[in-house]
Amino acid sequence: MSGAATPHAPASARASLPPTGAATPALQPPAASASASAPQGLPPPTTFDILPDLHNLLKRLIDPAPTPAPTQPGADGPLDIQHVATAATDIRLKLQRARRAVMALPEIDRTCEDQEEEIEDLEARIVRLKASLRELGKPTGTADDGDQRMTG
User: Where is the composition biased (Low complexity) (predicted)?
Assistant: First the structure.
């Protein structure tokens, strides 16, 4: 039988990613810090986009009122200085949500030194893998004992 032992293995079992090994311990997530509430990917960019809201708030504050300012200013109308704190609440809440989203990212507590060490380990691994590829690309020598030749 020349076929593979598990020809119908699921795609996850046939993954082409190499094992990380001891050379890159930072790539393996620690079991204690992995939580079910950690996001799988990055938050949407709108989470961090406060400039349009801030621009709108400042524009409402700077633009003079064409009519007398109402006691309860609308979302797009002119804004008196005493209402700035109330109008800025939405921006403040958006900043808090963005801060929570950043803090929920995986490995956010890693230091620059940890990341530099991992980069050095990965660069050393790249050098080793390139050397292995060069060795695989070299032509093989002829065998001296004659066992490799075919006789006919």
Answer: 1-40
